[in-house]
Write a structure and sequence with these properties.
Lipocalin; single chain; 7 helices; alpha+beta; 14-stranded antiparallel β-sheet; three-stranded antiparallel β-sheet; about 35% strand
C-alpha cells in the first residue's frame, strides 16, 4: 500500500511539473516580440511591385548583394498614396532559401517532371524607398520575380452596354508605364512600415489625418473599373464551384474627385463555373464572380462585378472572353512536338519490349512472327498515351493583379470606424 501511494504521489508531481513547464512555454510563445510575426500582423501590409534595373539571375545572388529598381505602381495605404510609381527602391539580400516553384500552364507534365521542384530565392529583410520626402524603410517579404503580361477581356458589342454613365469616375493611374517596361522583370513584395504608423494615422473621427476626403454617400455607375489583388491561389484543376475567393483593392476609387472606396477594401466572390483540363489536350476554363465589398471600417455592401483583365506570367497561355471567363489556350507547336516525341519513344520501347517478352515465353516465336503483335500493342499504348494528355490549366497565383468592372450601380456609404487592414491584407 505504501509503495502504491508513493507511486501516485510521484506521478502527480511529474504531471504538475509538466503542466507548469507547458504553461510557461505557451505564455512565452504567445508574447509578441519586437519585429516578430505577432507585432507585424498588427499592422496593415502594403503591396509593392518593382521594376528591376537589371536582369536578375536568382542562382547567382548571394548574401549582401544589393538589388535596385523603381516602383512599377503607386503604393497606397487606405485612401493615401505613400509612394508614387517611379520611386527608387534598394534591397539587400539577407540570405537565400529554397522555395517550391510556382505552378504554371506553359509546359506539359513531361517537361515539369524533369524540372527541379524547388528554386533558390533571395530573402530580403528591409527595403529603402527614396521619395520626395526623403528615404523610408520598409520591412519586406518577397512574393515572386517574373516577367508579366496583361490579359484583357474582349470588348463587348455596342448596344449591349449599361447605358449612360453619370459623374466622373476615376481609378488612380499607376500601372505599367511604357512598352519597354511591359517585358521588364518584375519583383512583387509584401511590405510593412518599420517606422511606425505615421503614414496611416487617423484622428478620433476615424478619418485619415491627411489625403482625399472620404465621401459620405455616393453611387458608382455600372462599368466602374477596380484594380484588385487576389489573396489566394485559384485554378481550374483544383478549385470547385462555390469556393470562396477574396481580393484586396489596390487603388482607391474616386467619384468627382471624392474618395468613395479606399484602397485596402476587401472584395469577396466565388468560383462560378470551372472546367478542369481534359483528355485530348482540351484546356480548362474558369469563371469568377464578385458579390461583396467590405470597407476598412467593416461596412459590408452587396455588389455584382465581373472580371475584365488580369496580369499573368508572360509565359501563361490564358485568355479572357467578353463575359470575363478565363480559358486556357490550345497547346502550341512546342507542346505538341514534345508530346509526339514522347509518344514515338514510348511506342518504340513498347514494341521492343513486347517482342522480347513473347520470344521468352514462346520458344517457337521468331522476330517475324512477333513483329506484328508488338506493333499492335505499341500502337494501342501510344494512342492511349496521346489521347489521355490533358490540356492547359487556368492558374491564377496568389497576388495576381486583376481588373473587375461593376455590373450594376453601387451605392457606397462611409464606414464609421477605421479598422486596421491586417486581416484584409492576409485574407482573413
Amino acid at each position: 500500500m505504501g509503495d502504491s501511494n508513493l507511486s501516485k504521489t510521484v506521478c502527480g508531481l511529474l504531471l504538475a511539473g509538466a503542466a507548469a513547464v507547458g504553461s510557461v512555454l505557451c505564455s512565452a510563445t504567445d508574447e509578441p516580440t519586437a519585429g516578430g510575426q505577432n507585432a507585424r500582423s498588427a499592422r496593415p501590409s502594403l503591396y509593392v511591385k518593382v521594376h528591376l534595373n537589371n536582369p536578375l539571375k536568382l542562382s547567382k545572388l548571394k548574401p549582401g548583394d544589393v538589388v535596385e529598381g523603381s516602383l512599377a505602381r503607386d503604393v497606397y495605404s487606405s485612401g493615401r498614396e505613400l509612394f508614387p510609381a517611379g520611386s527608387h527602391i534598394r534591397l539587400a539580400v539577407d540570405h537565400m532559401e529554397k522555395r517550391r516553384r510556382t505552378s504554371d500552364d506553359h509546359w506539359p507534365w513531361v517537361v515539369k517532371a524533369f524540372t527541379p521542384r524547388h528554386q533558390e530565392y533571395p530573402v530580403f529583410k528591409t527595403a529603402a524607398v527614396s521619395g520626395a520626402n526623403g528615404e523610408s524603410a520598409l520591412q519586406v517579404s518577397l512574393i515572386s520575380i517574373s516577367r508579366r503580361r496583361e490579359v484583357h477581356a474582349q470588348a463587348k458589342k455596342k448596344g449591349s452596354g449599361h447605358g449612360e454613365e453619370t459623374g466622373s469616375v476615376e481609378v488612380s493611374e499607376s500601372g505599367v508605364r511604357g512598352s519597354a517596361n511591359r517585358t521588364a522583370p518584375l519583383m512583387v513584395l509584401e511590405a510593412f512600415d518599420v517606422e511606425g504608423e505615421k503614414t496611416s494615422s487617423t484622428n478620433s473621427s476615424g478619418r485619415s489625418s491627411s489625403g482625399p476626403e472620404l465621401s459620405d454617400l455616393e453611387t458608382l455607375p455600372a462599368g466602374t473599373a477596380c484594380k484588385i489583388l487576389l489573396l489566394k491561389d485559384v485554378s481550374a484543376s483544383k478549385n470547385s464551384p462555390g469556393d470562396v475567393i477574396q481580393a484586396r483593392l489596390l487603388e482607391p476609387v474616386f467619384l468627382n474627385s471624392r474618395l468613395v472606396v479606399p484602397a485596402g477594401s476587401l472584395f469577396e466572390g466565388e468560383v462560378l463555373k470551372k472546367t478542369p483540363p481534359r483528355w485530348g489536350s482540351r484546356a480548362g476554363s474558369l469563371s469568377l464572380t464578385f458579390t461583396g465589398l467590405t470597407l476598412p471600417g467593416g461596412n459590408r455592401i452587396a455588389i455584382a462585378a465581373t472580371l475584365a483583365g488580369a496580369e499573368l506570367d508572360r509565359r501563361s497561355h490564358t485568355r479572357i472572353d467578353a463575359e470575363g471567363k478565363l480559358h486556357g489556350e490550345h497547346p502550341g507547336m512546342a507542346w505538341m512536338a514534345i508530346d509526339i516525341g514522347v509518344t514515338a519513344g514510348l511506342a518504340k520501347e513498347v514494341d521492343d519490349t513486347t517482342q522480347l517478352i513473347i520470344e521468352a515465353i514462346v520458344s517457337t516465336a521468331t522476330d517475324a512472327s512477333t513483329a506484328g503483335t508488338a506493333r499492335i500493342v505499341s500502337s494501342c499504348i501510344s494512342t492511349i498515351f496521346m489521347v489521355s494528355r490533358h490540356g492547359r490549366d487556368v492558374v491564377l497565383p496568389r497576388f495576381t493583379e486583376m481588373d473587375i468592372t461593376l455590373d450594376r450601380p453601387l451605392s457606397v456609404t462611409e464606414a464609421v470606424e477605421s479598422a486596421p487592414l491586417a486581416a484584409i491584407a492576409h485574407g482573413n
